[in-house]
Amino acid sequence: MSENKQKMISVTIDGTPVTVPENTTILDAAKLLGVHIPTLCHHEDLCVAGNCRVCMVEVKGSRTLQASCATPASDGMEIYTNSRLVRTARKHVIELLLSEHRGDCLRCYRNGNCELQALANEYRIDQGVFIDLHKEDQVDISSPAIQKDDSKCIRCQRCVRACTELQSVSALCVAHKGADMRITTFWDKALAYVVCTNCGQCVTHCPTGALTERNYVEDVWDAIYDPTKHVVVQTAPAIRVS
Ligand code: FES
């Protein structure tokens, strides 16, 4: 009979010990204990990206905070998920994400159903601390089903992973690096001109209003069509009264 027993390890999370299989991430170990660690780029359906850093935790003996979604727990680890250091760092990360995000929440289709907005509320962030860095005011409404608003994108790449891993379509991809990194399509074409199948998985997995169903904005926003890019340059919103 083959011995295929998984090695178990013990860790302590916020003072409570828990035993988990080896290679369990800190995030999953915390879930077993019912300890909430906020996440943005992480999604259970998708592979680990570890790029937003919202899930940072303190590990005793480590000189840096660790992304809990991407860090496997190891035997004897002492983890703190809600220390002052963690909460301060997490708040700064959320503030930085908000600085690149067009904050017109009251007019946004995802108002009240936005993971970034929920985190901003949880950490009591009601005004921008950093300068406003959001760049794109273009909304791609070329697709009959999906609209893509880059000014709301936090570059978590959940949409790219959903498109590739769940649907094997790869209509969305990542372009450039660092501050210039953005979610786009191959050759930077509008959604209607790439292999998008309008499945909606990117919309389902987007944590903000960057990807939404195409049934709202075209009625509410004044728009100027840019035929060279097949996108709409968004202008001032028009309030619909009826
Ligand atoms: Fe862990 Fe984004 S949720 S780095």
Rounded to the nearest angstrom, the radius of gyration is 20 Å
Strand content: 15-25%
The CATH architecture category of the largest domain equals 2-Layer Sandwich
CATH class assignment of the largest domain:
Alpha Beta
What are the segments in which pLDDT stays under 50 over at least 5 consecutive residues? Answer: 235-242
Tally of alpha and pi helices: 6
How much helix is in the residues? Answer: 10-25%
The tally of structural domains comes to: 2
Total strands: 12
Q: Structural class, from secondary structure content? A: alpha+beta
| Mean pLDDT reading | 87
Secondary-structure map with pairings?
Elements lengths: L7 E6 L2 E6 L4 H8 L22 E4 L6 E2 L10 E3 L3 H16 L15 H8 L15 E3 L5 E4 L8 H9 L5 E4 L6 E4 L15 H5 L5 E3 L3 H4 E6 L4 E7 L5
The site of FE2/S2 (inorganic) cluster has 13 residues, from loops.
